[in-house]
Amino acid sequence: MPINKKQLQRLVKFVAVLKENRYPNCNSFIAELRKDDLYGNKNVLCTTKTIQRDILTLKNDFDAPIDYDYEQKGYYLKSHGWEFLCPLFEEHEMLASVIGAKIAED
Description:
The structure is a single chain. By secondary structure, this protein is mainly α. 57% of the residues lie in helices and 8% in strands. A hairpin with a 4-residue loop joins strand 1 (66-69) and strand 2 (74-77). Helix 1 (5-19) packs parallel to helix 4 (91-105) and helix 2 (26-40) crosses helix 3 (48-62). The model has no long low-confidence stretch (mean pLDDT 87).
């Protein structure tokens, strides 16, 4: 499935939030995107249905081990060893995002 720039930005951000163990759900993640739009002028705000499609894309196209925790009311990674490998990034950009996610996780 082809991915556009806005969706890719959302996917990268969602994976980063997952790796930070913040248990995002559709509404909390939209609040994150709203902040990005407000302070970073990123223009990635979307609806909850779009976030649900993005989660399915991560699961189906990238084999993301994402599950929902009903106690935390949010999504989490079942395996923190999983890495979001996206061919649209240059190697140095992917390394920077992985290092950033690791720092945030620690």
